[in-house]
Give the backbone structure.
Amino acid sequence: MLGQLGEVPSGNPVVARGVDYLLRTQENDGSWFGRWGMNYIYGTWSVLCALNAVQRDPRSAEVQKAVAWLKTIQNKDGGWAKGGELRLDMQATVRHRARHRKRHGLCLG
């Protein structure tokens, strides 16, 4: 949201920390986890939109890696289905979320 208001990492330490977090949490394949669901497509396009809003260079390594990942999963018709082949099974989702909670020191009561 701050990026949509014109804030950029070089002028706002909060934005800089947010971008740093996003870059640290990019998956090895170039995607980002969609934390509100089970679909990496949503996570990845949301992060790409955020990076664009804060004027991150579209030629940067992390953006190019994400674009390359999106191209590898693109359907033959040009779209990106939210089909079962792109969804995690529930056990994998639970393991992934537990790993992120542990990594970021989150605790559930």
About this structure: The chain has one domain: 3-103.
